[in-house]
Amino acid sequence: MEQRQLQAKILIEALPYMQRFDGKTIVIKYGGSAMSNEELKKSVMQDIILLQMIGVNVVIVHGGGAAISKALDLHKIEHQFLDGLRVTGKEAMEVVASTLIGQVNKSLVQYLSEKGAKALGLSGVDGRMIEATQLNEKLGYVGKITNIHPEVIEIAFSNKFIPIIAPIAMNKNGDLLNVNADTAAVEIAAALKAEKFILLTDVRGVMKDKDDPETFIPRMTVSEVKESIANGTIQGGMIPKVQAGIHAMQNGLKEMTIIDGRIKHSILLELFSDVGIGTLIKKDE
Ligand SMILES: Nc1ncnc2c1ncn2[C@@H]1O[C@H](COP(=O)(O)OP(=O)(O)O)[C@@H](O)[C@H]1O
Ligand SMILES: CC(=O)N[C@@H](CCC(=O)OP(=O)(O)O)C(=O)O
Question: What residues does substrate bind to (predicted)?
Answer without folding.
Answer: 64-65, 86, 178
